[in-house]
Input
Amino acid sequence: MKVITTIKEMQEVISQFKSQEKSIGFVPTMGFLHEGHLTLVNRARQENDIVVLSIFVNPLQFGPKEDYADYPRDFERDRALAESEMVDFLFYPSVEEMYPNELSVKVTVQERTDVLCGSSRPGHFDGVATVITKFFNIIMPIRAYFGKKDAQQVAVIEGLISDFNIPVDLVAVDIIRETDGLAKSSRNVNLLPKERQEAPVLYQSLKAAEAAINEGERDPVKLITLIREKIRNDSTGVIDYVQIYSYPQLKPLEKLEGTIIIALAVKFSKVRLIDNFITNID
Ligand code: PAF
Output
């Protein structure tokens, strides 16, 4: 595995493989790799000749009061993990390399952002869409791999790819969970021990909603109430949102039908966790 820190070198390597008609699979990350990321890498490894993993904590997607400075980082550990998963190139640019000057053009996401994380993180998805556009132009992958835990991110990037005619297949990979159901996330290390014990309630509340749907419940308001009560009763976390929308359009629903997402975000003392459940209703 080779670590590349400059855009110029990354583009030279990519153009070499493109001229040999090699397929390039790309896994964008902000590092502090966990099993969720490694599942994406594994899938990319199976489906492509060349695998590029990026590690870049993108300042553009953090608000002024968000955890950019506290976002966990451990490059040496990440490098070893990437190597053991047979990544070919680890792209690890600095902030100065990615944004040498104030950008004169940024991507603005118009739809699918006024709900879920978008409504409490203004500008977040503009930052994600901007950095992903840069990465797609630098790495020119044929496939890019994203986790379904960030389901709104998947919906936004699907829109970006489609609206800008970007020749990339987005591969959305299922959520990977700890044995107690907590969705794997780099941010989980910032939970206090008591909060870590409570955090599986996010998944348990989604499972309770799933059971209610299977028993015939179709009223989004009742399902949201069920989830909120379970989280309130079983944790000290403060609910940021519990919402139900059509997926991937992220439009409100009066009655559950078609493909839907139930998504939630809960704030603990130093970290905000998200989780979701996507299902198809006849
Ligand atoms: O999901 C993430 O880790 C980030 O939003 C991404 C896609 C790497 C863009 O910075």
User: Anything to note?
Assistant: The beta strands are 2-4, 24-29, 50-55, 89-91, 143-147, 169-173, 238-246, 258-267, 272-281. The first strand starts at residue 2 and ends at 4. The pocket of pantoate is lined by residues 28-30, 58, 61, 128, 131-132, 150, 153 (CB under 6 Å).
